[in-house]
Sequence to fold (243 residues):
Amino acid sequence: MKHKLHHYLFGLVLIGLMTGCSISSGLSLRGSGDVITLEYDFTDFDRVAAGFAFNVDIRQGESFSVVVRVDDNLEQYLEVVQEDDILRIGLELDQNYNFRRVTLEAVVTMPSLSGVSISGTSSGTITGFSSTHALDVNVSGASSLSGDIEAGDASIEVSGSSRLTLTGSAEDVIIHASGSSVVDLENFPVTNANIDLSGASQTTVLTHGRLDVEASGGSTVYYLGDPTLGTTHTSGGSSIERK
Fold:
């Protein structure tokens, strides 16, 4: 009887492990190929957060507009909501999916931009913004963001093999990059820069003010301009190099 009970319990554990593996490995979600266009009447937001492999084009304009294009079989999973001053675009899924041949696109027009977050293998572009207000940028999960913007102080965080490329300008900038990420600000002059890199990440910055650097794990800071080097510390084969 004990042997039968042990075999039964072992069988339950094995089934549980197999089920867990199948869920963690993810399921495939293929687009139908029939693309629909949806428009939303959101207003009074100045931040955008996009995820779940979306391609988001963020443009400056006098009025608000949110237009989303997706395969019609993905509409049931679509999540486009406004939370206070944040517009969130993504999918609401109860399991991990591998996307195959899907259309997930959004064009967002807004008067001003104070924050943008791109995650989950998504990509984004920003165009035409100019202000003296602070800017927060977060790019994570093998995502990318590029574009042109003029801003006041900027806070930038890039992680998980992601990439950020900006043109324009800002005043003081704080940069955190990790996990083999790249931050390219070669054509984005800033006044002062405080940079913290880890995990084989790379940053290129153009500054004529003060440059503070903490770099570890084989990371590299390339700088242009004629900055004053402030507090600098490198470890694990990292370096600070003039470009």
Q: What stands out?
A: The longest strand covers residues 182-190.
